[in-house]
Prior knowledge:
Layout: E1 2-5, E2 8-12, H1 13-23, H2 30-33, H3 57-62, H4 68-88, E3 92-95, E4 99-101, E5 104-106, E6 110-114, E7 117-126, H5 132-143, H6 146-156, E8 163-171, H7 178-184, H8 186-189
Parallel strand pairs: 7-8
Antiparallel strand pairs: 1-2, 3-6, 4-5, 6-7
Amino acid sequence: MLVANRNSAALSVRDYVQFHHVRVNTLPTRVRTSRCRRVVGGPPIECRAGCSTIETAAHVIQGCHSTHGGRILRHDAICRIAVSSLRQLGWSVRQEPHFHTREGLRKPDIVAVKDQVVKVIDAQVISASSSLDDSHRRKVAKYDTPDIRHQVASEYGVENDNISFSSITISWRGIWSAASAAKMDLKSLL
């Protein structure tokens, strides 16, 4: 059985339920299922993947080595949606270009060009333990450097004032950074 609404692709019922488990923090992790039974010799709360870390939803979704591949797929899916939306709006998009800077290699996820305007965008899915807006600002600062501005301006033949830097900053529970959403102008993208 598939569940669909006007804002999402059709999801299986199982995926729909799992998404809500993540959103409301009810995934059956060892910490959650051992509530009221945590005593010496009680049920183990260490990660089942052998991480020697307490198995919480945040650890499993954001840090465990056993779910690393899923994190990559999630990040790539977010980028794919953004690229598709930008292309529908007439932007020319280049994915993961390489910029060599004094700080090292920088690979933003998206460089979009339209009408002599360039947007450099990098996506990140983070835990909500730190401020989403602070994480957005740190990501923008990572790419908004004189080296990258110079390379973008010369490669695309645009003025420095026509280059903007942003991030797609989302918590692992699906909450957008307000600063990121405002900078991305979500109404026109999605």
